[in-house]
Fold this protein.
Amino acid sequence: MGLSALTPPPLADDTAETRLEFADNRLLIDLCGEFDRNLAQVEHALGVQILRRGNQLELVGEAGPRGRAADVLRALYGRLEQGRGLEAGDIDALLRIGTAGPRPGDQLEMFQSGRMEIRTRKKTIEPRTPAQRAYVEALYGHEMAFGIGPAGTGKTYLAVAVAVAMFADGHVDRIVLSRPAVEAGERLGFLPGDMRDKVDPYMQPLYDALNDFLPGKMLAKLMEEKRIEIAPLAFMRGRTLSRAFVVLDEAQNATAMQMKMFLTRLGEGSRMVVTGDRSQVDLPRGMASGLGEAERILKGVKGVSFSYFTSGDVVRHPLVARIIEAYERDEATAS
Protein backbone atom coordinates (compact mmCIF):
# COMPACT_ATOMS: atom_id res chain seq x y z
CA MET A 1 0.00 0.00 0.00
CA GLY A 2 3.02 2.29 -0.14
CA LEU A 3 3.26 2.19 3.67
CA SER A 4 5.95 0.68 5.86
CA ALA A 5 6.65 0.73 9.60
CA LEU A 6 10.09 0.88 11.19
CA THR A 7 10.14 0.12 14.92
CA PRO A 8 13.29 0.94 16.92
CA PRO A 9 14.21 -1.21 19.96
CA PRO A 10 12.02 -0.45 23.00
CA LEU A 11 13.38 1.64 25.81
CA ALA A 12 13.82 0.22 29.30
CA ASP A 13 10.59 1.80 30.62
CA ASP A 14 8.53 0.13 27.83
CA THR A 15 7.96 3.53 26.23
CA ALA A 16 9.32 3.73 22.70
CA GLU A 17 8.38 5.00 19.29
CA THR A 18 7.08 3.58 16.04
CA ARG A 19 7.63 5.30 12.71
CA LEU A 20 5.14 4.93 9.89
CA GLU A 21 6.17 6.10 6.43
CA PHE A 22 3.59 7.10 3.80
CA ALA A 23 4.30 7.26 0.06
CA ASP A 24 1.52 9.71 -0.89
CA ASN A 25 1.76 13.10 0.81
CA ARG A 26 -1.70 14.09 -0.38
CA LEU A 27 -3.27 11.08 1.30
CA LEU A 28 -1.20 11.73 4.41
CA ILE A 29 -2.76 15.21 4.64
CA ASP A 30 -6.22 13.63 4.45
CA LEU A 31 -5.19 11.07 7.06
CA CYS A 32 -4.09 13.76 9.48
CA GLY A 33 -7.20 15.86 8.90
CA GLU A 34 -7.68 19.60 9.26
CA PHE A 35 -5.37 20.90 12.00
CA ASP A 36 -4.37 17.24 12.61
CA ARG A 37 -7.76 16.58 14.23
CA ASN A 38 -7.81 12.94 13.05
CA LEU A 39 -4.47 12.31 14.72
CA ALA A 40 -5.71 14.03 17.87
CA GLN A 41 -8.72 11.69 17.91
CA VAL A 42 -6.46 8.63 17.80
CA GLU A 43 -4.13 10.13 20.43
CA HIS A 44 -6.98 10.83 22.83
CA ALA A 45 -8.57 7.39 22.38
CA LEU A 46 -5.40 5.32 22.77
CA GLY A 47 -3.20 7.46 25.01
CA VAL A 48 -0.31 7.87 22.58
CA GLN A 49 1.49 10.85 21.09
CA ILE A 50 1.66 11.20 17.29
CA LEU A 51 4.24 13.54 15.73
CA ARG A 52 4.31 14.36 12.04
CA ARG A 53 7.75 14.61 10.42
CA GLY A 54 7.66 15.05 6.64
CA ASN A 55 6.04 11.97 5.14
CA GLN A 56 6.34 10.04 8.41
CA LEU A 57 4.26 9.76 11.57
CA GLU A 58 6.11 9.04 14.79
CA LEU A 59 4.09 7.26 17.48
CA VAL A 60 5.29 7.56 21.06
CA GLY A 61 3.88 5.58 23.97
CA GLU A 62 3.66 2.17 25.55
CA ALA A 63 3.96 -0.84 23.29
CA GLY A 64 0.31 -2.01 23.40
CA PRO A 65 -1.46 1.29 22.65
CA ARG A 66 1.29 2.23 20.19
CA GLY A 67 0.75 -0.97 18.22
CA ARG A 68 -3.01 -0.47 18.13
CA ALA A 69 -2.57 3.12 16.97
CA ALA A 70 -0.25 1.92 14.17
CA ASP A 71 -2.86 -0.65 13.06
CA VAL A 72 -5.58 2.00 13.05
CA LEU A 73 -3.49 4.47 11.03
CA ARG A 74 -2.54 1.78 8.50
CA ALA A 75 -6.19 0.83 8.05
CA LEU A 76 -7.26 4.47 7.65
CA TYR A 77 -4.54 5.11 5.08
CA GLY A 78 -5.57 1.98 3.16
CA ARG A 79 -9.13 3.27 3.15
CA LEU A 80 -7.97 6.56 1.62
CA GLU A 81 -5.94 4.67 -1.01
CA GLN A 82 -9.19 3.05 -2.12
CA GLY A 83 -10.69 6.50 -2.73
CA ARG A 84 -13.06 6.31 0.24
CA GLY A 85 -13.72 9.28 2.49
CA LEU A 86 -12.74 9.63 6.12
CA GLU A 87 -14.95 11.11 8.82
CA ALA A 88 -14.70 11.32 12.59
CA GLY A 89 -17.34 8.60 12.91
CA ASP A 90 -15.30 6.25 10.71
CA ILE A 91 -12.25 6.76 12.92
CA ASP A 92 -14.26 6.24 16.10
CA ALA A 93 -15.76 3.03 14.68
CA LEU A 94 -12.35 1.68 13.72
CA LEU A 95 -10.91 2.54 17.13
CA ARG A 96 -13.66 0.50 18.76
CA ILE A 97 -13.43 -2.34 16.24
CA GLY A 98 -9.66 -2.48 16.56
CA THR A 99 -9.66 -2.71 20.35
CA ALA A 100 -12.68 -4.95 20.99
CA GLY A 101 -13.86 -8.39 20.03
CA PRO A 102 -12.16 -11.77 19.80
CA ARG A 103 -10.55 -11.30 16.38
CA PRO A 104 -9.54 -7.64 15.93
CA GLY A 105 -7.33 -8.46 12.95
CA ASP A 106 -10.28 -9.77 10.96
CA GLN A 107 -12.39 -6.78 12.00
CA LEU A 108 -9.72 -4.32 10.91
CA GLU A 109 -9.48 -6.10 7.54
CA MET A 110 -13.27 -5.97 7.21
CA PHE A 111 -13.31 -2.23 7.88
CA GLN A 112 -10.44 -1.51 5.50
CA SER A 113 -11.69 -3.64 2.60
CA GLY A 114 -15.11 -1.99 2.50
CA ARG A 115 -16.76 -5.01 0.89
CA MET A 116 -20.18 -4.06 2.23
CA GLU A 117 -21.70 -0.78 1.09
CA ILE A 118 -25.28 0.49 0.91
CA ARG A 119 -25.57 2.88 -2.02
CA THR A 120 -28.36 5.48 -2.02
CA ARG A 121 -29.01 8.52 -4.20
CA LYS A 122 -27.25 10.93 -1.81
CA LYS A 123 -24.60 8.91 -0.02
CA THR A 124 -22.98 5.52 0.47
CA ILE A 125 -23.35 3.89 3.89
CA GLU A 126 -21.02 1.31 5.43
CA PRO A 127 -21.56 -0.77 8.57
CA ARG A 128 -19.15 0.54 11.17
CA THR A 129 -19.07 -2.36 13.64
CA PRO A 130 -19.25 -6.16 13.32
CA ALA A 131 -22.76 -6.12 14.81
CA GLN A 132 -23.88 -3.58 12.21
CA ARG A 133 -22.36 -5.69 9.45
CA ALA A 134 -24.22 -8.80 10.65
CA TYR A 135 -27.42 -6.73 10.87
CA VAL A 136 -27.11 -5.47 7.28
CA GLU A 137 -26.48 -9.04 6.10
CA ALA A 138 -29.66 -10.07 7.93
CA LEU A 139 -31.63 -7.22 6.32
CA TYR A 140 -30.68 -8.47 2.86
CA GLY A 141 -30.90 -12.17 3.70
CA HIS A 142 -34.17 -12.48 5.65
CA GLU A 143 -37.77 -11.56 4.95
CA MET A 144 -38.22 -10.41 8.54
CA ALA A 145 -35.44 -8.96 10.67
CA PHE A 146 -35.36 -7.61 14.23
CA GLY A 147 -32.76 -5.10 15.41
CA ILE A 148 -32.67 -4.79 19.20
CA GLY A 149 -30.36 -2.58 21.24
CA PRO A 150 -29.74 0.89 22.70
CA ALA A 151 -30.19 4.24 21.01
CA GLY A 152 -27.56 5.43 18.56
CA THR A 153 -26.51 2.01 17.25
CA GLY A 154 -27.87 2.58 13.73
CA LYS A 155 -30.77 0.11 13.88
CA THR A 156 -33.32 2.33 12.13
CA TYR A 157 -30.81 4.32 10.06
CA LEU A 158 -29.36 1.20 8.43
CA ALA A 159 -32.82 -0.29 7.91
CA VAL A 160 -33.99 2.83 6.07
CA ALA A 161 -30.75 2.90 4.04
CA VAL A 162 -31.31 -0.71 2.91
CA ALA A 163 -34.96 0.12 2.16
CA VAL A 164 -33.94 3.01 -0.11
CA ALA A 165 -31.24 0.91 -1.81
CA MET A 166 -33.64 -1.99 -2.49
CA PHE A 167 -36.29 0.43 -3.72
CA ALA A 168 -33.80 2.08 -6.10
CA ASP A 169 -32.74 -1.34 -7.43
CA GLY A 170 -36.35 -2.35 -8.10
CA HIS A 171 -36.52 -5.14 -5.52
CA VAL A 172 -39.54 -3.48 -3.87
CA ASP A 173 -42.15 -1.07 -5.20
CA ARG A 174 -42.60 1.06 -2.09
CA ILE A 175 -41.29 1.86 1.36
CA VAL A 176 -43.54 1.94 4.43
CA LEU A 177 -42.13 3.36 7.67
CA SER A 178 -44.11 3.24 10.90
CA ARG A 179 -43.86 3.99 14.62
CA PRO A 180 -46.22 3.68 17.56
CA ALA A 181 -47.53 7.17 18.40
CA VAL A 182 -46.95 6.74 22.13
CA GLU A 183 -46.65 9.89 24.24
CA ALA A 184 -43.75 10.34 26.62
CA GLY A 185 -45.24 12.93 28.98
CA GLU A 186 -47.44 14.75 26.44
CA ARG A 187 -50.83 14.05 24.91
CA LEU A 188 -51.43 14.06 21.15
CA GLY A 189 -54.78 15.77 21.62
CA PHE A 190 -53.17 18.82 23.18
CA LEU A 191 -50.86 19.42 20.23
CA PRO A 192 -52.13 21.99 17.70
CA GLY A 193 -53.26 21.18 14.16
CA ASP A 194 -54.98 18.33 12.33
CA MET A 195 -54.13 14.63 12.62
CA ARG A 196 -51.02 14.87 10.43
CA ASP A 197 -49.74 17.85 12.42
CA LYS A 198 -50.21 15.88 15.64
CA VAL A 199 -48.54 12.72 14.34
CA ASP A 200 -45.62 14.14 12.34
CA PRO A 201 -43.46 15.05 15.38
CA TYR A 202 -43.42 11.35 16.32
CA MET A 203 -42.39 10.39 12.80
CA GLN A 204 -39.62 13.02 12.49
CA PRO A 205 -36.67 10.59 12.98
CA LEU A 206 -37.93 8.63 9.98
CA TYR A 207 -38.14 11.80 7.86
CA ASP A 208 -34.60 12.68 8.96
CA ALA A 209 -33.26 9.31 7.81
CA LEU A 210 -34.99 9.54 4.43
CA ASN A 211 -33.65 13.06 3.89
CA ASP A 212 -30.13 11.67 4.37
CA PHE A 213 -30.58 9.21 1.51
CA LEU A 214 -32.84 10.91 -1.05
CA PRO A 215 -32.84 14.39 -2.65
CA GLY A 216 -35.61 16.61 -1.27
CA LYS A 217 -37.60 16.94 -4.51
CA MET A 218 -37.45 13.21 -5.21
CA LEU A 219 -38.55 12.39 -1.66
CA ALA A 220 -41.48 14.82 -1.87
CA LYS A 221 -42.57 13.32 -5.21
CA LEU A 222 -42.33 9.73 -3.96
CA MET A 223 -44.33 10.60 -0.85
CA GLU A 224 -46.95 12.37 -2.92
CA GLU A 225 -47.26 9.24 -5.08
CA LYS A 226 -47.52 7.09 -1.91
CA ARG A 227 -44.48 5.09 -2.98
CA ILE A 228 -42.96 6.14 0.32
CA GLU A 229 -45.31 6.24 3.31
CA ILE A 230 -44.73 7.28 6.91
CA ALA A 231 -47.62 6.45 9.21
CA PRO A 232 -48.42 5.62 12.84
CA LEU A 233 -48.66 1.95 13.71
CA ALA A 234 -52.41 2.24 14.31
CA PHE A 235 -52.88 3.05 10.60
CA MET A 236 -51.47 -0.35 9.56
CA ARG A 237 -54.54 -2.34 10.63
CA GLY A 238 -56.40 -4.07 7.78
CA ARG A 239 -53.61 -3.62 5.21
CA THR A 240 -51.63 -6.21 3.26
CA LEU A 241 -48.25 -4.82 2.27
CA SER A 242 -46.98 -6.53 -0.90
CA ARG A 243 -43.66 -5.78 -2.64
CA ALA A 244 -42.86 -3.29 0.10
CA PHE A 245 -39.96 -2.69 2.46
CA VAL A 246 -41.65 -2.13 5.81
CA VAL A 247 -39.93 -0.75 8.92
CA LEU A 248 -41.42 -0.54 12.41
CA ASP A 249 -39.34 1.77 14.58
CA GLU A 250 -39.54 2.11 18.41
CA ALA A 251 -41.22 -1.31 18.52
CA GLN A 252 -40.78 -1.53 22.29
CA ASN A 253 -43.78 0.84 22.48
CA ALA A 254 -46.06 -1.53 20.55
CA THR A 255 -48.43 -3.66 22.60
CA ALA A 256 -48.56 -7.42 22.05
CA MET A 257 -51.77 -7.04 20.04
CA GLN A 258 -50.31 -4.25 17.89
CA MET A 259 -47.14 -6.25 17.24
CA LYS A 260 -49.08 -9.31 16.07
CA MET A 261 -51.23 -7.08 13.87
CA PHE A 262 -48.16 -5.45 12.31
CA LEU A 263 -46.20 -8.66 11.68
CA THR A 264 -49.17 -10.21 9.88
CA ARG A 265 -49.28 -7.32 7.36
CA LEU A 266 -46.39 -8.92 5.46
CA GLY A 267 -47.32 -9.63 1.83
CA GLU A 268 -45.70 -11.29 -1.18
CA GLY A 269 -42.30 -9.94 -2.18
CA SER A 270 -41.99 -7.79 0.95
CA ARG A 271 -39.32 -7.30 3.61
CA MET A 272 -40.11 -6.30 7.18
CA VAL A 273 -37.75 -4.84 9.80
CA VAL A 274 -38.61 -4.27 13.47
CA THR A 275 -36.31 -2.13 15.61
CA GLY A 276 -36.48 -1.26 19.27
CA ASP A 277 -34.75 -0.63 22.59
CA ARG A 278 -36.10 -2.71 25.47
CA SER A 279 -34.77 -0.18 27.99
CA GLN A 280 -36.96 2.69 26.69
CA VAL A 281 -40.53 1.45 27.00
CA ASP A 282 -43.07 4.31 27.24
CA LEU A 283 -46.18 2.13 27.57
CA PRO A 284 -48.40 2.59 30.64
CA ARG A 285 -47.21 0.75 33.74
CA GLY A 286 -48.34 -2.87 33.73
CA MET A 287 -48.73 -3.09 29.94
CA ALA A 288 -46.29 -5.57 28.37
CA SER A 289 -44.19 -4.59 25.37
CA GLY A 290 -44.95 -6.53 22.20
CA LEU A 291 -41.27 -6.51 21.25
CA GLY A 292 -40.26 -8.86 24.06
CA GLU A 293 -43.15 -11.20 23.32
CA ALA A 294 -42.33 -11.32 19.60
CA GLU A 295 -38.70 -12.06 20.43
CA ARG A 296 -39.76 -14.99 22.65
CA ILE A 297 -42.31 -16.44 20.23
CA LEU A 298 -40.43 -16.00 16.93
CA LYS A 299 -36.96 -17.15 18.00
CA GLY A 300 -36.03 -20.01 15.69
CA VAL A 301 -38.77 -19.35 13.13
CA LYS A 302 -37.41 -19.81 9.59
CA GLY A 303 -37.04 -16.51 7.70
CA VAL A 304 -36.84 -14.42 10.89
CA SER A 305 -33.52 -13.04 12.18
CA PHE A 306 -32.58 -11.27 15.41
CA SER A 307 -29.63 -8.86 15.60
CA TYR A 308 -28.47 -7.43 18.92
CA PHE A 309 -26.49 -4.28 19.66
CA THR A 310 -24.64 -3.00 22.73
CA SER A 311 -23.14 0.31 23.82
CA GLY A 312 -20.02 -0.70 21.85
CA ASP A 313 -22.02 -0.27 18.63
CA VAL A 314 -23.09 3.33 19.33
CA VAL A 315 -22.15 5.51 16.36
CA ARG A 316 -23.29 8.86 17.74
CA HIS A 317 -21.11 11.00 19.97
CA PRO A 318 -18.77 8.79 22.05
CA LEU A 319 -20.35 10.25 25.19
CA VAL A 320 -23.63 8.52 24.25
CA ALA A 321 -21.92 5.14 24.60
CA ARG A 322 -20.57 6.11 28.02
CA ILE A 323 -24.02 7.30 29.15
CA ILE A 324 -25.60 3.99 28.07
CA GLU A 325 -22.88 2.02 29.86
CA ALA A 326 -23.44 4.06 33.04
CA TYR A 327 -27.18 3.32 32.98
CA GLU A 328 -26.51 -0.38 32.33
CA ARG A 329 -24.14 -0.52 35.34
CA ASP A 330 -26.72 1.19 37.51
CA GLU A 331 -29.46 -1.25 36.45
CA ALA A 332 -27.16 -4.22 37.07
CA THR A 333 -26.35 -2.92 40.56
CA ALA A 334 -30.03 -2.32 41.34
CA SER A 335 -30.99 -5.82 40.31
